[in-house]
Specification:
two-stranded antiparallel sheet, 2 domains, Oxidized Rhodanese, domain 1, 5-stranded parallel beta sheet, 169 residues, 5 helices, single chain, rod-shaped
């Protein structure tokens, strides 16, 4: 006589709504595949999400760090110009933009040529350098570059569009 192996239970309700239990033979049980064959997939996804979170946090924090130069207002820049004659005003726009109008006393060194020409124009790395362009974008880039080149007192004040004082045309 053969013994049947019962591996699962099936709960049924009869007509009187009573729950009954029935044993199901192994031959009638369908094998189901697990959603995740092992915990490797889940572990990999959790690790990838954690790593993405760490990278995003590091990017946000690095953006908030000190850029190495000071951002000042046009009013503060004007006060510096009036108070100190040793200040270098640096216009980092192209020469044709400079020719259309610039702040009195400004030197034109286009941002794309700073690495090659800055040491000739401003040999003293401790000099106070005020940097501007049209809107401030190139000025920030140039100010950061000056800092990385070793200049210690760099101040960026945005663009000539926000300059409320006289300009030379």
């Amino acid at each position: 006589m053969r013994t049947k192996l019962y591996v699962n239970r099936r709960y049924l309700k009869n007509n009187e709504n009573e729950e009954t239990c029935e044993l199901v033979p192994a031959s009638q049980v369908k094998e189901s595949k697990p959603l995740f064959p092992n915990n490797f997939v889940i572990s990999f996804l959790v690790a990838a999400l954690a790593l993405a979170g760490i990278i995003i946090t590091a990017m946000i924090r690095s953006r908030d760090k000190d850029p190495g130069y000071d951002h000042i207002s046009p009013d503060d820049a004007k006060r510096c110009m009036n108070a100190d004659e040793d200040i270098t005003i640096l216009d980092v726009r192209d020469r044709n933009e400079y020719a259309k109008g610039h702040i009195p006393g400004a030197r034109c060194i286009p941002v794309r040529t700073i690495d090659e020409t800055i040491y000739e124009q401003i040999p003293d790395k401790n000099a106070t350098v005020l940097v501007y362009c049209i809107t401030g974008r190139r000025a920030r880039k140039a100010a950061r570059r000056l800092f990385l080149l070793g200049y210690t007192d760099v101040r960026e004040f945005g663009g000539i569009k926000n300059w409320p004082y006289d300009i030379i045309k």
